[in-house]
Amino acid sequence: VDLEERLGELDLRSDSDIPDVPPPTDSTPEILKRALSGLSARWKNWWIRGILTLAMISVFFLIIYLGSFMLMLLVLSIQVKCYHEIITIGYRVYHSYDLPWFRSLSWYFLLCVNYFFYGETVADYFATFVQRREQLQFLIRYHRFISFALYLTGFCMFVLSLVKKHYRLQFYMFAWTHVTLLITVTQSHLVIQNLFEGMIWFLVPISSVICNDITAYIFGFFFGRTPLIKLSPKKTWEGFIGGFFSTVVFGFIFSYFLAQHQYFVCPVEYNSETNRFVTECEPSELFQMKKYSLPPLLQAVLGWETVNMYPFQMHSIALSTFASLIGPFGGFFASGFKRAFKIKDFADTIPGHGGIMDRFDCQYLMATFVHVYITSFIRGPNPSKLLKQLLILQPEQQLSVYKTLKSHLVEKGILQPSLRG
């Protein structure tokens, strides 16, 4: 049987037939290797992971300090790197076929999808800025048509690149690219959408996933005895349960400190006059201290009848619970993916951790949940956003809206008599 034709029939192959992906090289700095040379492999990995984790958390806090725009750039950078790691796996597996345009088309589709999503964000949140620049008005007005035309160009290029005897393989790779786009670009767009609702909706979910990852590893390292899932042999029930309780407590306490500052709770808005992102507002009821009565059981245990807390702290319990109970399944999914292609990590970007995708496999699932949670239980009418949309209308359209609104307010008796007529 012709070798190329046999390998092209991927749906008839077992997992053992899939060619091995070359393992990533060890990227641990030499100075760190020498410092830990006397330790066992288990403890060496512990220290490497711990040191790099602290370094990444420090950089993360620095970016938070630099503001919302830098966080958006961070999200975009992580998205591109995760996409690169997944696409590279596909390229390594099938590189021997020398198929045309696979990498070029993959990156082209990434640019197209990012152009679409970020264009939608600009039109949604930067309306007043766009209104002042005529060239941008054209791009925004026909944004979806331009995006569709760009995608059609890539689609036609793919059809033209089809090679006899490799049709099925090329369509597999076409699907590979689109699923990767769905996982990375769509989810990172939701992360930025959550950020615009207020930095707290960005920080608490992400920090909860990080906390769960760290505490589950610690509990599993010291107390783990019972395997949790076959896809990840090192995961244990002890780590899973310990991570759950630690994450819920962390999310509750962390949200208490964040809820006290406008910088974290106010929606992120763009000020066209200063050309800067601002986070200034009158905090909503979610971030105003309230008194709650405790259930009788807790009253008996704690000796308190009431407790003062922010309503957002109750929501943080829901976010932390998802991060610790459902979030890990994003990691299990990634583990299954890596086992399917016989690789240990997506890449070797971070010593002791693997690739960027190895650290953010749970974050993408969390981002979707937070977005759904906000739209289902939190988000209401946004006067500021509505006003921006009204300012884009033509003067006669704005006047029509004004007359209709004025008539409605007069009928409701809201306008003062002096303002009537």
TrEMBL record:
Subcellular location: Membrane
Pathway(s) served: Lipid metabolism; Phospholipid metabolism; CDP-diacylglycerol biosynthesis; CDP-diacylglycerol from sn-glycerol 3-phosphate: step 3/3
Membrane topology according to the record: Multi-pass membrane protein
Main location: membrane
Keyword field contains Transmembrane helix: yes
Catalytic reactions on record: 1-octadecanoyl-2-(9Z,12Z-octadecadienoyl)-sn-glycero-3-phosphate + CTP + H(+) = 1-octadecanoyl-2-(9Z,12Z-octadecadienoyl)-sn-glycero-3-cytidine-5'-diphosphate + diphosphate; 1,2-di-(9Z-octadecenoyl)-sn-glycero-3-phosphate + CTP + H(+) = 1,2-di-(9Z-octadecenoyl)-sn-glycero-3-cytidine-5'-diphosphate + diphosphate; 1-hexadecanoyl-2-(5Z,8Z,11Z,14Z-eicosatetraenoyl)-sn-glycero-3-phosphate + CTP + H(+) = 1-hexadecanoyl-2-(5Z,8Z,11Z,14Z-eicosatetraenoyl)-sn-glycero-3-cytidine-5'-diphosphate + diphosphate; 1-octadecanoyl-2-(9Z-octadecenoyl)-sn-glycero-3-phosphate + CTP + H(+) = 1-octadecanoyl-2-(9Z-octadecenoyl)-sn-glycero-3-cytidine-5'-diphosphate + diphosphate
Pfam families membership: CTP_transf_1
PROSITE patterns in the record: CDS
Annotated signal peptide: none
GO CC, alphabetical: endoplasmic reticulum membrane
Name of the top EC class for this enzyme: transferase
Cited InterPro entries: PC_trans (IPR000374), PC_Trfase_euk (IPR016720)
EC number: 2.7.7.41
Parts of the chain that traverse the membrane: 46-78, 99-118, 138-160, 172-192, 198-224, 236-259, 312-334
Keywords: Lipid biosynthesis, Lipid metabolism, Membrane, Nucleotidyltransferase, Phospholipid biosynthesis, Phospholipid metabolism, Transferase, Transmembrane, Transmembrane helix
Single GO biological process annotation from the record: CDP-diacylglycerol biosynthetic process
Family affiliation: Belongs to the CDS family.
UniProt cross-references to PANTHER family, sorted A to Z: PHOSPHATIDATE CYTIDYLYLTRANSFERASE, PHOSPHATIDATE CYTIDYLYLTRANSFERASE 1
Name of this chain's protein: Phosphatidate cytidylyltransferase
Source organism of the structure: Stercorarius parasiticus (Parasitic jaeger)
Taxonomic lineage: Eukaryota, Metazoa, Chordata, Craniata, Vertebrata
